[in-house]
Amino acid sequence: MRKLVLSCFAAGLFFNAGYAQTLFTFGNNSVSKEEFLRVYQKNSINKKPDYSEAALREYLDLYSLFRMKVKEAELQHLDTLGTIEAELNNYRKQLAKNYLTDEQLSNKLLDEAYGRMKEEVRIAHIMIMSSITATSADTVAPYHKIDSIATAIKKGADFAQLARQYSEDRGSKDNGGDVGYITALQTVYPFENAAYSTPVGKVSPIFRTQFGYHIVKVLDRRPALGEVKVAQILVTVSKARGEEGLTAARKRVDSIQAEIKKGVPFEQLVKKYSDDKFSVNDDGVLPWFGVGRLSPEFEKAAFSLKKPGDISQPVQTDFGFHIIKLIEKKSLKPLDSLRVTLKRKVDNDSRSQTAREMFFEKMKQKNGFKEYAGNLDPLLKKVASIPDTGARANQFSASEYREMNKPLFALDGVEYKQNDLMKYAEDLTRGRLMGPKSAVLKDIYANYIKTIVTDKEEHRLVEEHEEFKNLMTEYRDGIMLFELMDRNVWGKASRDSAGLKTFYASRKDKYTWEPGFTGSVYRFKNEDALKEGKKLMADKKLKDEDILKKMNVDNNPDAVTIQRGHYEFSKFTQFPRTAIVAGKATEPKKMDDGSYSVVRVDQVFDQPTPKSLEDARGYVVAEYQDYLEKQWNDEIRKKYAVKLNEKEFKSLVK
Question: What's the predicted TM-score (pTM) here?
Answer without folding.
Answer: 0.52
